[in-house]
Write a structure and sequence with these properties.
Blueprint lengths: L21 H6 L15 E3 L5 E3 L5 E2 L14 H12 L4 H8 L3 H16 L5 H4 L9 E2 L2 E2 L14 E6 L2 E6 L5 H10 L4 E4 L2 E4 L7 E5 L17 H5 L2 H9 L10 H13 L5 H10 L5
Helix pairs in contact: 2-4, 2-10, 3-4, 4-9
Length: 286
Amino acid sequence: MPDRDVGHRGLDSGRVSLEDTPLFRLCWPRGQRFCPRCRGLKIYSLADARHRCGACGYTFRDLTGRWIGNGALTPGQWIDLAGLFAQEASVLAMSKALALSYNTVYKATTALRFSLAAQSLDAGTLFGPEHLGRFLKGRRLAVPPRDEAGLSPSVFGILEKQGWVFIDLLPRLGPEDVFHFGLQFHLRLARLGSMVYTDRYRQYDGLILCADESLPLYSIRKSRDPVHLDRMGGFWDFARSRIKVYKGVSPGRFPLYLKELEYRYNHRSEDLIPLLLDCLCAFMPE
């Protein structure tokens, strides 16, 4: 989507402490710190904004083990970034508005997208070792490279019910299966650049994947009859215009963008900024 007004929200990011922002209550909803390791409540404050658990001796900071702990942003910058992300600003526009490097903002938005994916119903499968879980090192995020050559594309099923969309990872299906169904079982395929989607498949309104150069994209011919997703409206109308601008997205990163679309659509009538900050402040999976 085209960048909207991406002006800075006006926080003096360098001077805002965590306790002076909504982030503190999101991290500690009852206003009381607890140990991220053992959940003990006997906490001692140390120097340099560190804390120590009196039960297990674990030393931590307020953002330790949380998605928001991945990135060199101040609390104020995180709040500003969430506002810009909600507006669908590009990484380049965010970096200019926040006066941060492109790579710093890229890593921060990647952490934010991971936090959104962690809210999905299929997060247990999605964060398995063969998928997004390979980027988690303990409770730290190893940001995936922009070009992940050699990683097989994941296949997802799209199902919309009563205004809610569910995009499920289908680990038993590979991209070769999707093309095989198209060639041998007349499952109609369509494409948007390197994004391949299909007609109805079992209970799903369609399948979708991000293809790489090993897949025969040339075999997908434009049909006069649109596939089921193209006739639905709803989520697919919302997603299609956004997918068109996903140029250069690798198959390995595509699940993050797909889960972002799922989250945005399901919360389309809400103020996204507090929701995004809540996701960011959640603990990462073990």
